[in-house]
Design brief:
- The protein is an alpha/beta fold.
- 45% of the residues lie in helices and 13% in strands.
- The chain contains 14 helices and twelve strands.
- The strands form three sheets. Strands 2-8-7-6-5-3-4 form a seven-stranded mixed β-sheet, sandwiched between helices.
- α7 links the parallel β6 (180-184) and β7.
- The longest helix is centred in the last third of the chain and has 27 residues, at 360-386.
- The structure holds pyridoxal-5'-phosphate.
């Protein structure tokens, strides 16, 4: 295979989004052709067929999560699910500011929702610190619970450094103390087993476009379906049938391909890490190396600013400096700041993530491209200093 046979750019940004699986596209196109009815029009067959397709997809998503079908509500995204989950979790308890614990490395969707609730006087936030690996200590969870909290918000895995959190242990502690839990499993779905977590948490969030489904569709698992759920979700408009069928199909394939994909992505990620480390000996691998997502590689190349690497490589490979945010603005990563990484590691930080369709040839091309760029940048910097 020559480099001209490779996709352009080679896609290594699966934390930001995954390409939709062609099998999912087929299912969605078929649904768009077949399901002309409105799922809310239960008076006729066309409506009932569309409603059945929505319910089948709900069952598939429930199977991925490990919960009852009725506990799954479709949302516009994980961000939407986070806002709705928080609204339901905090509903009814008016008259006092509730105390919500969260790590400083949560996704901006969680951080901004919590900040809004704080600004409106609804909550106080109890921050859980992370260490240099982006990991939390279970003792910090214990202290937060001892201080008194009403809700614990925790991601299963981090979207920048790929660190996997001790969510089951955290939920166990919360359960014993009567604290409710909201788990952001957006990066974990299709990569980690959600079932043990879903069996015990109160709310769990996933997003279709992170596991090869369509963009613009997410799901919220709600353990107890009280009146606040009905208030938020009833009359929520006509369901997006094709997108719902799409997330259902993506969930089915994620379950079926789980082990095979984990083996493939960890092999490719390790090949990428080994190739880059061999050619760039001062390269640092960030995050919790013993506890990270199988497709995730977060590195820093000291002395090589990440924006300079992206400027040289962006037309050949799709990698990133951190979280893709709605504004597209290049802010210093709040995750790396919370990890207290030294400035030279923050400046040289790059997030790479492989996927279901990544090939060995693409990995080798990415290694060559990044190494070439890093060496050229180092050389240009040394020249400038020498002048
Ligand atoms: N939570 C995490 C951990 C994420 O990685 C993301 C997206 O990057 C989100 C939430 C938001 O997902 P969505 O794009 O579906 O709103």
């Amino acid at each position: 295979m020559t480099t001209s046979d490779l996709p352009s750019p080679v896609y290594l940004d699966h934390h930001a989004t995954t390409p939709i699986d062609p099998r999912v596209i087929e299912v969605m196109v078929d649904a768009m052709r077949r399901h002309i009815g409105n799922p809310n029009s239960v008076e006729h067959g066309a409506g009932r067929a569309a409603a059945a397709a929505v319910e089948a997809a709900r069952a598939d998503v429930a199977d991925l999560i490990g919960c009852e079908r009725d506990q799954v509500r479709f949302t516009g995204s994980a961000s939407d699910a986070i806002r709705k989950g928080l609204a339901i979790a905090l509903a009814g308890e008016y008259g006092r500011r509730l105390r919500v614990a969260a790590t400083a490395v949560e996704h901006p969707a969680m951080l901004s929702s919590l900040a809004d609730l704080q600004a409106n006087g609804r909550i106080d936030i109890v921050w859980l610190p992370v260490d240099q690996k982006g990991q939390i200590a279970i003792d910090m969870v214990k202290s937060a619970i001892a201080e008194g909290i009403d809700l614990m918000c925790l991601m299963m895995a981090n979207n920048e450094v790929g660190t996997i959190y001790p969510v089951e242990a955290t939920i166990g502690l919360c359960l014993r103390a009567g604290v409710r839990t909201l788990v952001d499993a957006t990066q974990a779905a299709g990569r980690l087993d959600l079932h043990p977590v879903a069996a015990t948490c109160d709310f769990l969030i996933v997003s279709g476009h992170k596991f090869y489904g369509p963009k613009g569709i997410g799901a919220l698992m709600i353990r107890e379906l009280g009146p606040d759920v009905a208030a938020l979700f009833d009359h929520a408009g006509t369901p997006a049938v094709a997108a719902i069928v799409g997330i259902g199909a993506a969930a089915r394939f994620a379950v079926a391909d789980f082990e095979q994909e984990r083996l493939l992505t960890s092999r490719l990620r390790d090949r990428l890490q080994a190739g880059l480390s061999a050619a760039l000996p001062d390269l640092v691998v960030n995050g919790d190396i013993d506890n990270r997502l199988s497709h995730s590689l977060h590195i820093s190349i000291p002395g090589v600013p990440n924006d300079a690497v992206l400027a040289r490589t962006g037309h050949k490979i799709a990698i990133s400096t951190g979280a893709a945010c709605a504004s597209g603005a290049q802010e210093p990563s709040h995750v790396l700041r919370a990890m207290a990484l030294p400035e030279h590691l923050v400046e040289g930080a790059l997030r790479l993530s492989v996927g279901r369709f990544t090939t060995d040839a693409e990995i080798d091309f990415a290694i060559e491209t990044i190494v070439e760029a890093a060496n050229a940048i180092k050389y240009a910097r040394e020249e400038t200093i020498a002048c």
